[in-house]
Amino acid sequence: MTAAAVRPHRLFFALWPGEATRRALYRETRAVVRHCGGRPVATDQLHLTLLFLGQVPGEAVGAVTTAAVALDCPGFTLVFDRYGWFESAQVLWLGCSAPPAPLPTLAAGLARQVRAVTGLVPDPKPFQPHVTLARKVRNPPQFPPPRPVAWPVDGFALVESVTAPEGARYTVLETFPIQSPV
Ligand code: 2AM
Fold first, then answer.
1. What ranges do the domains of the chain cover?
2. Which ligand 1 atom is nearest residue 159's CA?
3. Is residue 127 in contact with ligand 1, taking CB distance under 6 Å?
4. Measured in angstroms, how far is the CA atom of residue 145 from the centroid of ligand 1?
5. Which architecture, in CATH terms, is 3-172?
6. Looking at residue 167, what is its pLDDT?
7. d(Cα 151, Cα 21) in Å, to the nearest integer?
8. Which residues, 6+ apart, have CB-to-CB distance to 45 below 8 Å?
Protein backbone atom coordinates (compact mmCIF):
# COMPACT_ATOMS: atom_id res chain seq x y z
CA MET A 1 0.00 0.00 0.00
CA THR A 2 1.34 3.48 -0.86
CA ALA A 3 1.89 6.24 1.70
CA ALA A 4 -0.83 8.28 -0.06
CA ALA A 5 -3.34 5.47 0.47
CA VAL A 6 -2.74 5.11 4.21
CA ARG A 7 -2.40 8.76 5.19
CA PRO A 8 -5.53 10.24 6.86
CA HIS A 9 -7.83 12.30 4.64
CA ARG A 10 -10.03 15.19 5.79
CA LEU A 11 -13.29 14.26 4.10
CA PHE A 12 -16.87 15.37 3.69
CA PHE A 13 -19.85 14.48 1.53
CA ALA A 14 -21.30 17.36 -0.44
CA LEU A 15 -23.56 18.42 -3.24
CA TRP A 16 -21.17 19.69 -5.89
CA PRO A 17 -22.85 21.91 -8.51
CA GLY A 18 -22.60 21.36 -12.24
CA GLU A 19 -21.19 24.15 -14.39
CA ALA A 20 -24.53 25.85 -15.19
CA THR A 21 -25.57 25.90 -11.51
CA ARG A 22 -22.14 27.10 -10.44
CA ARG A 23 -22.30 29.99 -12.91
CA ALA A 24 -25.82 30.92 -11.72
CA LEU A 25 -24.75 30.83 -8.05
CA TYR A 26 -21.88 33.16 -8.86
CA ARG A 27 -23.95 35.49 -11.06
CA GLU A 28 -26.78 35.96 -8.56
CA THR A 29 -24.57 36.47 -5.48
CA ARG A 30 -21.46 38.24 -6.75
CA ALA A 31 -22.64 41.80 -5.95
CA VAL A 32 -23.51 40.88 -2.36
CA VAL A 33 -20.30 38.90 -1.91
CA ARG A 34 -18.33 41.86 -3.19
CA HIS A 35 -19.97 44.16 -0.64
CA CYS A 36 -20.05 41.88 2.41
CA GLY A 37 -16.53 42.80 3.53
CA GLY A 38 -15.40 39.17 3.85
CA ARG A 39 -13.18 36.72 2.01
CA PRO A 40 -15.13 35.18 -0.91
CA VAL A 41 -15.10 31.43 -1.49
CA ALA A 42 -13.69 30.76 -4.98
CA THR A 43 -16.45 30.01 -7.47
CA ASP A 44 -15.00 26.59 -8.32
CA GLN A 45 -15.19 25.62 -4.63
CA LEU A 46 -18.87 26.41 -3.95
CA HIS A 47 -20.73 23.40 -2.55
CA LEU A 48 -23.30 22.27 0.01
CA THR A 49 -21.97 19.97 2.73
CA LEU A 50 -24.15 16.95 3.48
CA LEU A 51 -21.96 15.32 6.10
CA PHE A 52 -18.61 16.38 7.55
CA LEU A 53 -16.43 13.38 8.44
CA GLY A 54 -13.19 15.05 9.51
CA GLN A 55 -9.98 13.02 9.52
CA VAL A 56 -10.57 9.55 8.09
CA PRO A 57 -7.77 6.95 8.33
CA GLY A 58 -6.51 6.06 4.86
CA GLU A 59 -7.52 2.43 5.24
CA ALA A 60 -11.16 3.47 6.00
CA VAL A 61 -11.69 5.56 2.83
CA GLY A 62 -12.81 2.52 0.82
CA ALA A 63 -15.48 1.69 3.41
CA VAL A 64 -16.72 5.30 3.33
CA THR A 65 -17.17 4.93 -0.43
CA THR A 66 -19.00 1.61 0.03
CA ALA A 67 -21.36 3.27 2.52
CA ALA A 68 -22.28 5.95 -0.04
CA VAL A 69 -22.78 3.52 -2.94
CA ALA A 70 -25.45 1.66 -0.96
CA LEU A 71 -27.67 4.76 -0.62
CA ASP A 72 -30.93 4.95 -2.51
CA CYS A 73 -32.31 8.47 -2.95
CA PRO A 74 -34.67 10.21 -5.36
CA GLY A 75 -33.38 13.21 -7.29
CA PHE A 76 -34.64 16.65 -6.29
CA THR A 77 -34.23 20.31 -7.10
CA LEU A 78 -33.07 22.91 -4.59
CA VAL A 79 -34.07 26.54 -4.92
CA PHE A 80 -31.63 28.97 -3.33
CA ASP A 81 -33.44 32.15 -2.43
CA ARG A 82 -32.09 33.56 0.84
CA TYR A 83 -28.94 34.79 2.53
CA GLY A 84 -27.93 33.82 6.03
CA TRP A 85 -25.06 34.47 8.40
CA PHE A 86 -23.42 32.29 11.03
CA GLU A 87 -22.35 34.83 13.62
CA SER A 88 -19.86 32.66 15.51
CA ALA A 89 -18.18 31.40 12.30
CA GLN A 90 -18.57 34.79 10.54
CA VAL A 91 -19.82 33.04 7.45
CA LEU A 92 -22.15 34.53 4.84
CA TRP A 93 -24.18 31.78 3.20
CA LEU A 94 -26.84 31.08 0.63
CA GLY A 95 -29.75 28.83 1.52
CA CYS A 96 -33.23 27.62 0.64
CA SER A 97 -36.34 28.92 2.40
CA ALA A 98 -38.07 25.59 1.64
CA PRO A 99 -35.58 22.71 1.39
CA PRO A 100 -37.31 19.62 -0.05
CA ALA A 101 -37.62 16.56 2.23
CA PRO A 102 -35.16 14.37 0.25
CA LEU A 103 -32.30 16.73 1.19
CA PRO A 104 -32.25 16.09 4.98
CA THR A 105 -33.18 12.47 4.24
CA LEU A 106 -30.05 12.12 2.10
CA ALA A 107 -27.84 13.74 4.76
CA ALA A 108 -29.28 11.54 7.52
CA GLY A 109 -29.01 8.41 5.36
CA LEU A 110 -25.34 9.11 4.71
CA ALA A 111 -24.65 9.57 8.43
CA ARG A 112 -26.44 6.31 9.22
CA GLN A 113 -24.66 4.36 6.47
CA VAL A 114 -21.21 5.71 7.37
CA ARG A 115 -21.71 4.77 11.02
CA ALA A 116 -23.01 1.31 10.12
CA VAL A 117 -20.36 0.45 7.51
CA THR A 118 -17.25 2.14 8.92
CA GLY A 119 -17.90 2.60 12.63
CA LEU A 120 -16.81 6.25 12.23
CA VAL A 121 -18.89 8.80 14.12
CA PRO A 122 -19.55 11.79 11.85
CA ASP A 123 -20.07 15.36 13.03
CA PRO A 124 -23.20 15.23 15.23
CA LYS A 125 -24.16 18.89 14.65
CA PRO A 126 -27.70 19.36 13.25
CA PHE A 127 -27.82 19.55 9.45
CA GLN A 128 -28.08 23.18 8.35
CA PRO A 129 -28.01 23.16 4.55
CA HIS A 130 -26.04 26.12 3.20
CA VAL A 131 -23.54 27.18 0.58
CA THR A 132 -20.77 29.22 2.16
CA LEU A 133 -20.20 32.33 0.05
CA ALA A 134 -17.67 34.26 2.12
CA ARG A 135 -15.74 33.97 5.38
CA LYS A 136 -14.65 36.61 7.89
CA VAL A 137 -17.93 38.47 7.38
CA ARG A 138 -18.33 40.59 10.50
CA ASN A 139 -21.88 41.85 10.07
CA PRO A 140 -25.20 40.19 9.27
CA PRO A 141 -26.29 40.58 5.65
CA GLN A 142 -28.54 43.58 5.02
CA PHE A 143 -29.23 42.76 1.40
CA PRO A 144 -32.43 41.96 -0.48
CA PRO A 145 -32.80 38.24 -1.22
CA PRO A 146 -31.12 36.94 -4.36
CA ARG A 147 -33.03 36.00 -7.49
CA PRO A 148 -33.79 32.31 -6.94
CA VAL A 149 -31.24 29.84 -8.30
CA ALA A 150 -32.51 26.33 -9.11
CA TRP A 151 -30.02 23.51 -8.51
CA PRO A 152 -31.14 20.15 -9.94
CA VAL A 153 -29.49 17.45 -7.82
CA ASP A 154 -28.72 14.15 -9.53
CA GLY A 155 -25.78 13.06 -7.42
CA PHE A 156 -23.40 13.87 -4.58
CA ALA A 157 -19.66 13.76 -4.01
CA LEU A 158 -17.00 12.62 -1.59
CA VAL A 159 -14.66 15.58 -1.20
CA GLU A 160 -11.23 16.01 0.34
CA SER A 161 -10.25 19.21 2.13
CA VAL A 162 -6.55 20.06 2.05
CA THR A 163 -5.40 22.90 4.23
CA ALA A 164 -3.08 25.40 2.55
CA PRO A 165 -1.68 28.74 3.76
CA GLU A 166 -4.28 30.61 1.68
CA GLY A 167 -7.15 28.49 3.07
CA ALA A 168 -8.62 25.04 2.47
CA ARG A 169 -8.85 23.63 -1.09
CA TYR A 170 -11.53 21.07 -1.86
CA THR A 171 -11.09 18.24 -4.37
CA VAL A 172 -13.81 15.85 -5.48
CA LEU A 173 -12.54 12.28 -4.98
CA GLU A 174 -15.61 10.43 -6.19
CA THR A 175 -19.16 11.12 -7.35
CA PHE A 176 -22.30 9.08 -6.66
CA PRO A 177 -25.31 9.39 -8.95
CA ILE A 178 -28.83 9.46 -7.59
CA GLN A 179 -32.03 9.36 -9.63
CA SER A 180 -32.46 12.42 -11.87
CA PRO A 181 -34.89 15.09 -10.60
CA VAL A 182 -38.38 14.71 -12.05
P1 2AM B 1 -18.64 25.73 6.18
O2 2AM B 1 -18.50 26.04 4.73
O3 2AM B 1 -19.89 26.28 6.78
O4 2AM B 1 -17.40 26.07 6.96
C5 2AM B 1 -15.35 21.50 4.55
O6 2AM B 1 -14.78 22.11 5.66
C7 2AM B 1 -16.84 21.66 4.56
O8 2AM B 1 -17.40 20.99 5.69
C9 2AM B 1 -17.34 23.09 4.63
O10 2AM B 1 -18.49 23.20 3.80
C11 2AM B 1 -17.74 23.26 6.07
O12 2AM B 1 -18.80 24.14 6.29
C13 2AM B 1 -18.20 21.87 6.42
N14 2AM B 1 -18.13 21.54 7.83
C15 2AM B 1 -19.15 21.10 8.60
N16 2AM B 1 -18.75 20.85 9.83
C17 2AM B 1 -17.44 21.14 9.89
C18 2AM B 1 -16.46 21.10 10.92
N19 2AM B 1 -16.75 20.68 12.15
N20 2AM B 1 -15.22 21.50 10.61
C21 2AM B 1 -14.91 21.92 9.35
N22 2AM B 1 -15.79 21.98 8.34
C23 2AM B 1 -17.05 21.60 8.60
1. 3-172
2. 5
3. no
4. 24
5. Alpha-Beta Complex (3.90)
6. 85
7. 6
8. 169, 170
